[in-house]
Amino acid sequence: MSTTFKIGKIFGIEIGVHWSWVFIFALITWSVAESVLTEFFPEWSSSQRWVVGVVVAIIFFASILLHELSHSLVAKAKGIPVNGITLFVFGGVSNLGREAQTAGEEFQIAIVGPLTSLAIGVAFAIAWATLRGAAPEVSAIAGYLALINGAIAAFNMLPGFPLDGGRVFRSIVWARNRNLLRATRIASRTGEYVAYGLMAAGAVQFFFNAVGGVWLFIIGLFLRNAATSSYEQMVLQATLSGLSARALARPGVAVAPDMPVEQLVSDLMLRGQGRCFPVISGQQLLGLITLTDVQRLEREQWPQTSVFQVMTPFEKLHTVAPEDEAMQVLQLMSEKDVNQVPVVDGRLFIGIVSRGDVMRLIQVRRAVATSDGQD
Ligand SMILES: [Zn+2]
Predict the structure, then answer these.
(1) % of the chain residues with pLDDT over 90
(2) Could you tell me the distance, in angstroms and rounded to a whole number, from the CA of residue 109 to the centre of ligand 1?
(3) pTM beyond 0.90
(4) How far, in Å, is the centroid of ligand 1 from the Cα of 110?
(5) Residue of 27 and 256 predicted with greater confidence
(6) CA of residue 212 to ligand 1 center, whole Å
(7) Domains in the chain, start-ordered, CATH in brackets?
């Protein structure tokens, strides 16, 4: 089930909206209709206020979209593939095909977003100032949109990774120390401090404005999680870089399709040979047989049932190609919630990658990387 619905394409970039955006849309409409407009235009009817509220929410939506589009377009100009833009509760994300390769690239991709929001804010501020006499209603709404866009620019420029400002900060540190991993660590740590600052500010604000305080606290919490997880992701990526599925694959103990389940259990499983076995015939992978498959079968039937009859067939397996990157393999395992994936070239069996093996490898590689006193 997808939690994102696609609304179209701009410059060939797929635009998606996460369902959580519905809340933001409702929140903006409601706050404009019931607090902003009632304050400035108490004489307006309720339906007038709600219609204008919806219009303001749509313009807000377009402002966020422009912000994200600017990131994506600069990335595209740098030759980075853009998989799409998703708008969700805290704003948007541009889903880039890869990370920036130089500090300069990253700096430009990151800074253009807040600059775009700032430019939109300035445009609305000019509208606010020039229309004050002629059309006070339009002017008031323009003023509100100027403030919102200014706030988006300011918030995104907070120097905590993975906010835009944190990315700008990271690119500067990266340009100076030429070590992306260390720059990411410094920027993520700053991101955590910024997050704790927001949470503390939210706690204080709670006593004056409960909703605003809770909101700020939630944003802080979200930023803290994003800062730590994006750093872990980065470390994982660096640790596994250059490794392919083929390099991680182990041959495993293969079984023939006609082996009785009884024999599989007594000769292999009970002798500590593992709990998951590739079923192979002439180097072709037919399926995987695991302890879970065996447990589904009545014990009395073990002697007369072949592994072929109870295995998970090839068609139902998640497999990877030998040249797939280790990081992709790990992502597949966590997405599909499986502990091992077979590596196949077409149907030719190459080996099996298990989550435990990858985790042990990560530990060793990290220990080696940090043993030279770099960390
Ligand atoms: Zn941004």
Answers:
(1) 34
(2) 9
(3) no
(4) 6
(5) 256
(6) 22
(7) 4-240 (no CATH), 245-369 (3.10.580.10)
Q: What span, in angstroms and rounded, lies between the C-alpha atoms of 253 and 338?
A: 19
Q: List all residues 6 or more positions away from 125 whose beta carbon is below 8 Å from its beta carbon.
A: 142, 143, 146, 150
Closest to 139 (Cα-Cα) out of 125, 120, 150: 125
Average pLDDT of the chain to the nearest whole number: 86
Cα(117) to ligand 1 centroid in Å equals 9
5 alpha carbon to ligand 1 midpoint, in Å? 21
* pLDDT interval class at 238 (50, 70, 90): confident
Do residues 339 and 356 lie in contact, with contact meaning Cβ atoms separated by under 8 Å? Answer: yes
Burial label for 182, CB within 10 Å (0-12, 13-18, 19+), is middle
3 state DSSP class of 375: coil
DSSP string, 333-359: HHHHT-SEEEEEETTEEEEEEEHHHHH
CA angle centred on 55, ends 86 and 69, rounded to 5°? 30
Name the token pair of 126: 């000019």
Measure 78 CA to ligand 1 centroid, in angstroms: 17
What is the whole-number distance in angstroms between the Cα of residue 175 and the centre of ligand 1?
20
Separation of CA 114 and ligand 1 centre (Å): 6
Range name among 121-125, 309-313, 353-357 with the lowest pLDDT average: 353-357
Neighbouring residues of the ion ligand 1, judged by CB less than 5 Å:
113, 164
> What is the whole-number distance in angstroms between the Cα of residue 295 and the centre of ligand 1?
50
| Residue 1 predicted with pLDDT over 60 | no
Query: What pLDDT, on the 0 to 100 scale, is given for residue 374?
Result: 47
Q: Give me ligand 1 centre to Cα 166, in Å.
A: 10
Other CB atoms closer than 10 Å to residue 9's CB: what's the count?
A: 10
Instruction: Determine the distance separating the centroid of ligand 1 and the alpha carbon of 321, expressed in angstroms.
Output: 35
